[in-house]
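Appendix B, Record 12. Input sequence as logged:
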Amino acid sequence: MKPISKNKISDSINFIQFIKQKEQMFELGIIAALYIVFYFVLKYVYPFPGGTADSGSYVAAGMRGFYDGYRPYGYSNFLVALHNISENINFVVVIQYILNAISSIFFVFTIKYFFKPASKVVYYSFIILALGSIITICLANNILSDSLFTSISVVWLTLCFWFAKSKKTMPRLIMLAAKFILLYLLINVRYTGVLFFGMEVVLILFVMFKDSKLLSFAATAILIIIYTGFYKKQVEKSEKATQVKVFSGFSGWLSVNSAMHATPYIDIDQRRIKNKSFAEFYKFMKPIDTVLVKNNTTVAYMWSNDCAPKKYMYYTMKKNNWPYIKSWTYVSKIYDEFGKYIMINYPFKYFRYYLLPNSYGVFYPTNDEIYHMYKPDALTEKELKWYGIEDKGTVYSRSAFFHKLFPFFPAFRLGIYLLTAVAIVMLFTNKLLKQMSRIEVVVVSFISILLILFIAFHIYAAPFCLRYIVPVHLCQIGLLYIVGNRLLNRK
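Logged structural output:
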């Protein structure tokens, strides 16, 4: 296969000139047309957007107009802003779909600009896999924060590449300002965004430290100030909403949920439990800790009324005559301690019964909340009325086509993981890095580290769902393209 052009970063023309070239304009036209066609297919199949129980929580918080103590308010704020423009719920889908398209196209053409295609087969395979991801496109048709979070994170990631390439101070500072804004938006939409803060610090020091120690330290300090300011403000909002001083109640609930995968196989010595509330919770847990023993991980321990966390919460609620949200948040601090206790004192059980099966769930993701079935009851009648929908009978889907595709998704994701792992190994063992320029090395190293950290974070943080992989889907496909491209063009 003859190469299209040399595999190196473009210096002869800028990105705008590159986009205006006939080849790119033709590809943009085809891509835009396909996005439009697929949108109408998507809306024919699913006239009404889907969602989960989270969807109602986001909408309810938006209707109230303030943080309610549960999920970050950023996505609810996004829904309110769109609602002020149009009350049609599909307007949310349109905007999410457009943001997904723009961010993905920006990423794809940046990669093409940096790494000129060595083969049409490799390049068009990259385009199809990157932009034709069903799980990414369909996610835009849900009232969930995932699609917005993905779009923002893809733009941030792409700007990281440009930041690494730039050698001038002013463009770097402009991009830093843009990235800091995006990071602030990310962490307001999903707390997972904290992972990208850490990556940003590493990139700043790597790119700027040699040229200007003062600027690199100043930029890092500003980033730390942004995060700590957000953290303190979030604690204040949580305390105002729940009367409990905590960053997020979900961390404790997720901690106990993870720990309870291991507790059926642990005989805890109650004499070692010194915290009174901690010991009290354990009494609730022991008689029913085998209710949900499974081979795979689940979030049911934190949601099921038959499990100890909810039973103890209702007990605390009744004993103190507290409202639900205060009780839910208060016990989360106890649950956070309990989760850490199990993880630290019984690490092998914790690994065997939670981390190991959750690793399997990350690499072969069969847990799913939106793709394998359509949920017409994601929003309550009150929430539907906020969008001008009086008849709940209009909430339906016309086909189960995408549902039927779901059994293929886990195997496909496993295949992508395996190829990505091979690509990373080849980068560092097959002398491919030595053939790359410094900026190319930064790009592939940054993607590799981000993927590894993202996967490790999700193995630890919570039982994995298929939709959680979407923010790094383009990273995986981009890395495969870069490595495949370099192999074809190696010296």
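The CA atoms of residues 259 and 339 lie 5 Å apart.
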